[in-house]
Amino acid sequence: MLGMLNATFKDLKPKKALSQFGGEIKARVGARDMKLVFAVSVALIIIGFGSALDDPALSFYGEPQYAIKALTSDTTLDQGSKFRMELYITGAGDVNLSRIFVSIPKYIVNNGKVKLTELKYIPIDPGNGTYRGKPEINDSMNSSFYLPVDPILYQLPAERGEIFSPKMLILGEASYLVNETYYAPFTVDFVIAKNATGGDREIYINYIYKYINKWYQDTKIIRVHINHWYETDSWIRKLQWGAMIGIGLSLLLLIRDFLLRPLIYLWRLVWG
């Protein structure tokens, strides 16, 4: 009996037996661990993604940083010319209150009145960021006026925290198409007065906004040049016509001196 046991233990290789036994244990424990690790990883990804969506640095919410952007038509103008200015708000962050102040020198505005077109957004389904824009026109604004800014202009046209939206513009940065015409959030139109004096003039745009107890400000100055009478297109055209007439007369004099006079001289020699 002892001989059989000894033979058995001799046939078994202890290291190999232990490694096989340990391998089985590791395989069983490893399978359970892999399932646990996978479950924990998925949970962490979901938690991390949710935290990322709430992160102000990613969702464009938190302390605000905004600026007023002004796009204008030609800033070199004659008396009677039309001038247009489109105003946008660009940036990110939370805003509790805001307004824009526009100051145009009254003496350069025809009849002292400007036309304001304000794009009003109507929420259709705020849950998924769906809005409809409608332009509202006031053509009897004074040359200096305040514009209260609708808080909706600071909204992204997508759900709050949607960082993968293909349109990463707040409504204040976007134009809206209505009847084949694109409208800015604010559009100012006016005609240069017929009696406006020539020279450089400045239009002031002051944008202020508030978050909690802190105020912020951004100011833009648009310089327009009103042509003097000698700078106007009509006067320049007259000068051009005058120059052309002068050149024509000079050519006629040249023709007379170098062509007509020799012909006259020959005529006298022949027919003397």
Fold and architecture overview:
- The protein has 272 residues and is an alpha+beta fold.
- It has 2 domains: 2-54; 65-231, Immunoglobulins (Immunoglobulin-like).
- The chain has 4 helices and 12 strands.
- The strands form 3 sheets. Strands 1-3-10-5-6 form a 5-stranded antiparallel beta sheet, with no helix packed on it. A 5-stranded mixed beta sheet has the order 2-12-11-4-7, with no helix packed on it.
- The longest helix is centred in the first third of the chain and has 41 residues, at 14-54.
- Mean pLDDT is 77; it is low at 1-22, 42-58 and 159-166.
Q: Determine the oligomeric state from the structure.
A: single chain
The CATH C-level name of the largest domain is Mainly Beta
Percent of residues in beta strands?
35-45%
| CATH architectural group of the largest domain | Sandwich
Total domain modules: 2
Q: Helicity, in percent? A: 25-40%
* Low-confidence parts: 1-22, 42-58, 159-166
Strand order of the largest sheet: 1-3-10-5-6
Gap between N and C termini, in Å? 166 Å
CATH H-level superfamily title of the largest domain: Immunoglobulins
What do we call the CATH topology of the largest domain? Immunoglobulin-like
How are the secondary structure elements laid out?
Blueprint: H1 2-11, H2 14-54, H3 56-59, E1 65-72, E2 76-77, E3 82-92, E4 97-103, E5 113-125, E6 130-142, E7 144-148, E8 176-178, E9 181-183, E10 186-191, E11 199-211, E12 214-226, H4 233-271
Parallel strand pairs: 2-12
Antiparallel strand pairs: 1-3, 3-10, 4-7, 4-11, 5-6, 5-10, 8-9, 11-12
